[in-house]
Each structure stands twice: as C-alpha cells, then as structure tokens.
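Batch job 17 of 40 flagged for manual review because the log was empty.
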Amino acid sequence: MAPDRFTSVTDSRAAANVIGALVLFAFLIIAVSLYQAQVVPQDNQQVEFSHNLEVQDDMSAVRNAILDAASTGEARSIGVDLGTRYQPRTFFRNPPPPSGRLSATQFDRPVTIVNAQSVGDTETGDYWNGDSRSIETGVLEYEPNYNRYRAAPTTVYESTLVYNSFAEEKTRMLAPQRLVRGTDITLIGLTGEFSTSRNRPVTISPEAASPETRRVTLEAAGGPITITAPTTLGEAAWEDALNDEDHVESVTVADGVLTVTLDESATYDLRMAKVGLEQQAQTTPRYITDVGRSGDRFTVEVRDTYNNPKSGVEVTVSTNGVQQTVKETDSDGRVSYDFSGTGTLSFRIPGGGDEREVVFDVDPVTSPNGDGGPIDVTWTAPNGGDDFTFDAGADDDGQVTLTAQSDPAVEDLDVEYVVNNSSVGTIAPPDSTTNDAGATQTTFEALANGTVSVYALGGGGGDVINITVTNVGEGDLPGGEPVVGNPAQAFDDADDDGALDANERTIATSQLYDFDNTSVNLVIPEAVGELEQRNDPVSIRARSITSEVDFSSTNKAVTLEATAGEVLLDSRIEAKKSSVDISGTRVDVSGASINGQNDGITLTANGDELIASGAQLSASKSTVDVSGKRVDVSGANIDATNRGITLAATDGELVASGALLSASKSTVDISGKRVDVSGANIDATNQGITLSATVSGGGELIASNALLSADKSDIALESVGDIFVDGATLQSRNGRITADLGGAYTLHLSGTVVQNQKGPGAIQYTPDGVTEDPDRPIAEPQ
C-alpha cells in the first residue's frame, strides 16, 4: 500500500512546530539568563551606589551634630541608614539586601597640646602653664558590605572632619576640619564604643558631657604650641586639609599620629568639649580659677579637663589656714564666700597641685575713724550707680563718665576698675585715687553692642555696674589703638586689611539681617555669632563680604551679594524651605555647608573665579547652579536629586575632581574651556550627563577614574582636544554614550568600562580622524 501523503505532511508540520517552540523557549531561557546575569547586577550596583552617597551625607550630618553638641550643648538625633533594599522582582532573583557596619572605637592615644600657657590669668595659668594637656577621643566609621559596588569607600569621622577612605590609601574629604581655623583651636573628645551591622537605619545622638562654655587664650611657652592627635589619615591628606591655615607652621603624620606645629608669635583661643555617642559621658574636676571679688564676696569657678564649668563639686573654704566650710559648685561651676576679715582666703578642690587651689590675700583698708572696718566703694553715677543702657550712637565720642564713691569718704584711696568683656567696652584710666570728698571717676568707652560688667574695687570693698551698649554701629569708633583678633562686632574694613582699625566704622548685629550699603567692605567675625531668622529673610548687600558666622532662615531666603568685591566664607548657610543666593566679583565658599533644599542654591562669580572646593551643597528638591570665569568644586558634595546640577566656567577651566554630584532624577551639565572631573562620582540616572570642554575655544576633557551614571538616559562628552576616560566607568543602559572631540584628537580608553546594553554598546565618537588609545571595541566612529 502506498504511504499516506497527508499523514506524512501533517507529521512534518507538527515536528516543525515542536522544534520552533523549543527554539523559542531556548531563546527565552538565554534572554532571561542574560538579564539575570547582566542587567540585574547593574541595577543593583546603581542602588548600592546611590545608597552610599546617602550614607556619606548621613555621616556628614553626624559630624555636624557632634560639632553642634560641642558648641551649644544641644543634642539632636541623626539617622544613618546602614543598608538598602533592591527593587522587587517578579521573575528574577536579587541577592540578600546589602548591609553595613557602623562602629565607634577609642583611639589608644590621646589628643595632646603642649607648650601652651594662658594669657593674663594667673590662676588659669596654674593649669595652662606649658605642660602637656591631653584628652581621650575616638573615631566613627561606616563600612559598607555591598554585593556589587565593591569599590565603595569606608566613610570616617575623626578630629572634626569626615572623609572617604578607598583602596590603596586613597582618600577624599567630605567635610572640612575645625581643628585649627585662623587663631581658633577646637579640640573635641569623642567617647563611646559600639559596633552594629544591619541593613536598617540606626540613630546616633551625640550628647555633650562638657560643651564649649569657656575659651582660654593661649600663647607659646618654651617653644611653639604643638597639637598631636591620633589619625587614620595620611600626611598628604592632612596637609591639604590645613593648607589654607596661615598660622600652621608644619604638619606631619608618623605612626598614626598627626602633629601640627603653630606659629609661635600668635595668640590662640582654645575651645574644648567632650561629646558622647552612646551613654551620657562624664567629666571630672581638673582645676579651679578665680572669678573675682565684689565687696566682701569672693567667687571662684571649678573647671574640668575641657576648661568648662563643673557643677556639683565640693570646694573646701578656709580662712588663714583654718577650714570654715565645704560648699558645692552651682550649675555654672561657681562657689562664693563672704569674708570681711584679713589674711588669706583659700578655695580648694580634691587632688594635688597648685591648679586645684585659689588663694586670695585679703588686706582691707581701714577707715580713718579708726574703727577697723573696711572701706566700701560703690558706683554713684550715672543713673545713680544702677545698671543702665548706653546709646553710643547718640554720643559724639562713644564715651560715658562713671563715678565711684568711698564709704566712709576717704581721700587718696586707690580704686581699680575692671571689665569682664573688653570687646564690648574698655575703661580709662584703669585705676585712680579718690579726691577729698571720697569720689573718683573713670571713662567707659563703647566698642561694640552688648552687655559688659564694670567693677570698682578698693579698700576691701567694691561694686559692679552692668552697662548695655547699643547703636555702636551708628558712628565711628573713637580714637585709640587698632582692635585686632576676633572682635564681637561686624565692621567696614575700609583699608581691606582684615582687622578692625580705630578709624573704621562698626556695624550693629541687628543691622546685618537686612543690610544694604554697597560702599562697605563688610567683615563679620566669628565672635558676632550666628545670624538666624525664622520667618524673615537674611539679606546682605555690600561692596565685599567676608564672614566667619553661620546664616540661617527657616522659611525665607538667604542672599549675600558683593557688588564690587569678593564673597569669602566657610561657614554654614541654611534656608531649608527657600533659596540661598551668593554672588560677587569673586566667590570663595571652600568648605562651607550650604542648604537651600526647597528652592535651590545659586553661586555666581561675575568677574573672577568661583571656588567651592570641599563644600557641601544640598538642594535635593531644587537646583544647584554654580558659575564663574573659572570654577573649582573639587571634592565637593553636591545634591540636587530632583531638579539638576549646572556647573559653568565661562572663560576658564572647570575642576570637579573627586566631587560627588547627585541629580539622579534630573540632569548634570558641566561646561568650561577645560573640564576635569577625574575621580568624580556623577549620578544623573534619569535625564543624563553632559560634560563639555568647548567654552572660549575649548580644550581637553578629563574624566579619568570617574563614575558617570545616566542609566536611563544619555552621556554626552564634548571637547576641542583629547578626552580622557581611562579607568572610568560609564553607565547608560537605555541611552547613548557619545564623544565629540571637535577635531583629530585622541580618545584615551585604557581601563575604561562601558555599560550600555540597550544602546549601541560602545562610545560613539566624532569627527573623522579621532585616535583610540588603545584601540578597543568599546568605542567606534559615529
């Protein structure tokens, strides 16, 4: 019988269908496998990279909370997200969520300061006498444990700064040092030991056991003042961190110890604090110093190792070597005792050493009637000797005459005058003798707005008058020697020497919140204190602006404009619910922390360079715009997640080497005559990255060892010269990666990694004549 042709054809078709299905299934398996092997890891790496940027911000916030606790005593909690989670997947598998370890450990060596003695205070000088003084401190580290981002840094806080530590001893600074700034020395002892590993957030609450309540003025004794501190940073990194400090003579690091030697000719203000990260830390009393005498009342103050008042300390009071009582220090660390006799009056705290005892030699003058009683001295004018307010702006010379009277009236009685704050006002002459009516006079000269206590002491008695000075800023300073250092007043630096001179006008702090005078070279020293508003803006417009203070406005904008000079600051500027606008001929905000979260940050140098190296710029819900003839944001941390980052050098190079730029939901646009983003991390996942070295004729573009991530959009590289992407990673899964070299230049590709699955899979370059070095399949002509 002949074969059934219909059956044969049917069987063939059925077999073909089966084979086709098997082939399709095989392709599906291959596609799924490729997606699992390539796309999933890349997505997860991006999640880990973004998380690491957030943790770096968290660690910088912890550092700021430590500094705030040290300076104000106020504690606040900061969350640190140790791990993250990948996006859920229905048909594909993720590895376990990555975790991180946060640990605080104590260094095995202390922070020390040697060859430092106090200026003009013999009792404090019993402790600050040039001997070595030390405090214990620690380090806080975050170490990630990612599945894909293997090159992630360890982020470290130590000695007031925060930095990233990479492999091969490479580091990048995230927050600047406050160890030495000008003539200010800040030593913060960090305590607490813990270690926690998890993939969830933890809360850190730095709390001051001894906040910076007192400052001690120091000078060199037997050699230059030298600070040593344990460190995990190298010498080159510390040299960079302290490079701008004029009073730092040398910086060395050996065997994990930093040594900073200071200029021997200067005097310094020392601030110290102890901050705990876990349980409430404690301090112990270390020395006692005299506060002063008012009539028969003598007052002393007990301080801890950090120069700050210590409450609840028992003080033994003795007269002429005989113990009289034991008193406990109050909340200000003080004890007072009334003594109307003669001889010695001593106050002692437990322990040995001269620094633990204060002795007064009491030898009152007797009245002429021979009754043996002491003579008292009281203020009688102005205002009847009562506290009063002095309107210095309404007075031609900023001076007022004070009158003191002896009781009973004694002629030729020596009277000494003392002020507790010479930056607000001074007394001349500092001493005098009474006339035949028992009266004497001195002149108070106002220097700054504020309150000052003026003491008249004589004959075993004394009195104090509190003078509140206002409106100093309305007129010029009276004649006299220049006021230098850190005056507690803003001023017009007419000769542009950085010091308040006798003929230069001071400006009341109350005027600074809304200041508009374009003829003023405005200087705001640190001692003025933070300019803080809540529902009103801070607006300063001057010829030039130099500031050491923080600016903040909770709900309104902060605007600083120098119309014909530079803006120079390195402090904190915050307008969380509004904008920060800074402009000048030249702008230098190196190391500053600027927050304009809701309405953005604009930095403009309209005639010269703009420097924001090491700065932290945060406007996560808006834009960050930085422009100048030349722009340097190297090592900066810039966050404009939702609205984008624009960095523009209009007539020179733009340097963003080592910077962290995050605009994951928007764009990053960088332009200049020459552009250097070597070692930078740039994230613009959703809307792309443009790096353009084409301004003013253009030049080379350097992105060596950078990480450029525009996963869902394009990366565009433009130059009129060579483009260096050697050692860089370029991620653009859904977009294109292009390079326009503007001529027959070289595209440097050694060690370059290109991740571009849904695009051409390579860097597409133009024009003709471009040379690849080396020739690799990751690049091709467009």
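Reviewer: the log was empty due to a logging misconfiguration, but the result itself is present. Residues 545-781 form one domain. Unflagging and moving on to job 18.
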